[in-house]
Design brief:
About 90% of the residues lie in helices and about 0% in strands. The protein is elongated, with a radius of gyration of 14 Å. It is built from 2 helices and no strands.
Length: about 60
């Protein structure tokens, strides 16, 4: 499944959570989605230090 399709599904889930559950549900779905992404990334091939370093370097630019 392409990343665009996955992104579309995540966006739809967040939209439904925000519409039906309010802002608190929106934040909960977003936080659990981030945790799920991290766990999936770890199980898929591990998280390397270089990946984390690149993430923080991009944020500081």
């Amino acid at each position: 499944m392409s990343r665009a399709i996955v992104g579309m599904f995540v966006g739809m889930a967040l939209a439904f959570a925000g519409y039906f559950g309010g802002f608190g549900a929106f934040l909960l779905v977003a936080a659990l989605g981030a945790v799920g992404y991290g766990v999936g990334r770890y199980l898929e091939g591990g998280v390397r230090r270089e990946d984390l370093r690149d993430l923080f370097e991009r944020r500081n630019r």
